[in-house]
């Protein structure tokens, strides 16, 4: 009798009301948690830094006719080298610069090439295609990133994550529609096929770089990632700089305003590279990429005053939709699938771990040198 009464009470309007209230309370507890708030704030800081690089680059190109994306990237990699690579040089043992270069140099050259060319191809695409095409096709990087995370990082996504990504992409579509209505769709499409291909290539290279970054900062150290990127990124971008921008650099009319714009760009880019691993360590590469979708909207806000852009209410709607999707994604954590022992052993051999250390290591444990060293000493 008591069970029947409990069942009837659960099905009663009052019981349904309590159930809905409890569901709403749980959702609110997830969405409005300190963890989600922290990710939102950090994500928007990254967006503002990207906005700073975009605005300074456009101001240099429009006002001073300076179009040197590779030079600007080269300056950033040099700053990473001066701070993080030298930092690694003072370390000893397996965490030191010389050991890392000796054991993993070819992996970090691959990472540097992906990162340098991702930056270059996206900027270069604006010369051939339209703003709308860049904004839309740049989103290709998100499903590519999720696929790489699935296979390489063994990340597993829940239904809410796919819905959240769809909501964010809907927000991007709203932003693109606002651009068209506001007249930002300018006639730069000299060869859209080449431009669109460059955007897709750049987005895919960004996805590769971001997955590598997430793996390194979660399993190794942030300093190793930034130090190696500074070392090999300086080499790759410097070599490409000599090839593609030698004439453009010689034509720059240097004055103090141009120097200030270069300095602001360098500070924003260096801060972006330094902060992104911190955010990625507590979230994921996919989450970070969803959060920075608002960077174009912040650039628009500055463009209203600097470049004479026209405002549209749809921009506010686009921002709201992207943020809703971002919050939905962050409210539920992903999980990592169990890694087969054979695959784990192969990965550890690639990282030059000793066989006896591997035998002591549980199957689900990721490669963390400090912990393994402690286990060996016991």
Automatic annotation (TrEMBL):
- Which family is this protein grouped under? Belongs to the SLC35F solute transporter family.
Q: What is its main location?
A: membrane
* Alphabetical list of InterPro entries matching this protein: EmrE-like (IPR037185), SLC35_F1/F2/F6 (IPR009262), SLC35F_Transporter (IPR052221)
SUPFAM superfamilies linked to this entry: Multidrug resistance efflux transporter EmrE
According to Swiss-Prot or TrEMBL, what is its membrane topology?
Multi-pass membrane protein
**Keywords recorded for this protein, A-Z:** Membrane, Transmembrane, Transmembrane helix, Transport
Which domain of life does the UniProt lineage start with? Eukaryota
UniProt subcellular location: Membrane
**Any idea what this protein is called?**
Solute carrier family 35 member F2
Name one molecular function that GO assigns to this entry: transmembrane transporter activity
GO CC terms of this entry = membrane
Q: Where is the chain membrane-spanning?
A: 35-61, 73-90, 134-153, 160-181, 193-213, 225-244, 256-276, 288-307, 313-330
| Described purpose of this protein according to its UniProt entry | Putative solute transporter.
């Amino acid at each position: 009798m008591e069970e029947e009464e409990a069942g009837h009470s659960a099905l009663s309007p009052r019981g349904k009301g309590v159930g809905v209230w409890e569901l709403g309370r749980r959702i609110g507890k997830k969405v409005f948690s300190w963890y989600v708030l922290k990710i939102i704030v950090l994500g928007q800081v990254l967006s503002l830094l990207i906005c700073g690089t975009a605005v300074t680059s456009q101001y240099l190109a429009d006002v001073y006719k300076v179009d040197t994306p590779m030079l600007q990237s080269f300056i950033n990699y040099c700053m990473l080298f001066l701070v993080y690579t030298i930092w690694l040089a003072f370390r000893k043992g397996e965490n030191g610069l010389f050991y890392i270069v000796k054991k993993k140099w070819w992996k970090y050259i691959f990472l540097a090439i992906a990162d340098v060319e991702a930056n270059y191809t996206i900027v270069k695409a604006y010369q051939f295609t339209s703003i709308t095409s860049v904004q839309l096709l740049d989103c290709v990087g998100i499903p590519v990133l999720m696929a790489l995370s699935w296979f390489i990082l063994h990340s597993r996504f829940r239904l809410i994550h796919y819905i959240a990504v769809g909501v964010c992409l809907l927000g991007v579509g709203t932003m693109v529609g606002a651009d068209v209505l506001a007249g930002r769709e300018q006639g730069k499409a000299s060869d859209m096929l080449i431009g669109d291909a460059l955007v897709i290539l750049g987005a895919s290279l960004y996805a590769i770089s971001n997955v590598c970054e997430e793996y390194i900062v979660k399993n190794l150290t942030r300093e190793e990632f930034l130090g190696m990127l500074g070392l090999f990124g300086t080499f790759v971008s410097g070599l490409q700089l000599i090839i593609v921008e030698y004439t453009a650099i010689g034509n720059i009319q240097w004055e103090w305003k141009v120097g200030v714009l270069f300095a602001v760009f360098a500070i924003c880019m260096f801060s972006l590279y330094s902060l992104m691993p911190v955010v990625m360590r507590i979230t994921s590469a996919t989450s970070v990429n969803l959060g920075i979708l608002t960077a174009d909207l912040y650039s628009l806000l500055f463009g209203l005053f600097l470049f004479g852009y026209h405002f549209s209410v749809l921009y506010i709607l686009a921002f709201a939709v992207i943020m809703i999707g971002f919050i939905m994604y962050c409210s539920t954590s992903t999980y990592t699938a169990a890694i087969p022992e054979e695959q784990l052993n192969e990965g550890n051999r690639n990282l030059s771990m000793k066989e006896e250390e591997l035998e002591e290591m549980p199957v689900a444990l990721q490669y963390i040198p400090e912990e393994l060293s402690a286990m060996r000493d016991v």
